[in-house]
Amino acid sequence: MIRLETRGRVLVLTLDRPARRNALDRALCEALLAALRATGDAAALVLAGAGPSFCAGADLAEWRALEADPAAREARSALGQAVLAAPGEVPKPVVAAVQGAAMGAGAALALGCDMVVMAEDARLGYPEARQGIFPSGVAPSLLAHLGPKPAFELLATGRDVGAEEALARGLANRVVPAARLIGEACALAEAAALMPPGQMARLKRLVPRG
């Protein structure tokens, strides 16, 4: 579910469920939480997705299967919120390397990281409005980055944001060719790994992420 690779001082965590576009089901959420909480001696982290997409968001098939069980839905929702918060709780810089689609919870997961590097073909989006889902779980990070009016537009219309627009609007730090995505993300992560963990944790609390 999570593939780990060490590149120098950087640990790359790859969501490895490409047949489902790395959609976040319970198993993947639990695996990602465990991986983020056990990063060993790595100075910095890169969060990536296997296959053509970074993350399609929550696994809607799993979510709909829980419709008749409110308690299970509530527990699943709490797990999802823990996953979205987890990159901000790691006392190390975390960089999202986004290719293809980062939708809904996938977009929120990327924005929950400290920095975002996007491939030229990447896009962020919040399709919940088109799917009849209220976006309460994914809205806070978008609000923190864009403010109320632009965030409202994206949440209400479900319009996707391409890589260059994301860069211009402060949702991304870099846009690079897809072939250089992981390398550029690792370089940025390592460049940010100057502070000791205590200071890095304080910096991450200082910078709002939603």
TrEMBL record:
Transmembrane domains' residue ranges: none
SUPFAM superfamilies recorded: ClpP/crotonase (SSF52096)
Gene3D superfamilies according to UniProt: 2-enoyl-CoA Hydratase, Chain A, domain 1 (3.90.226.10)
Molecular function via GO: catalytic activity
Taxonomic superkingdom: Bacteria
InterPro entries: ClpP/crotonase-like_dom_sf (IPR029045), Enoyl-CoA_hyd/isom_CS (IPR018376), Enoyl-CoA_hydra/iso (IPR001753)
Family: Belongs to the enoyl-CoA hydratase/isomerase family.
Protein's UniProt name: Enoyl-CoA hydratase
Organism name: Caldovatus sediminis
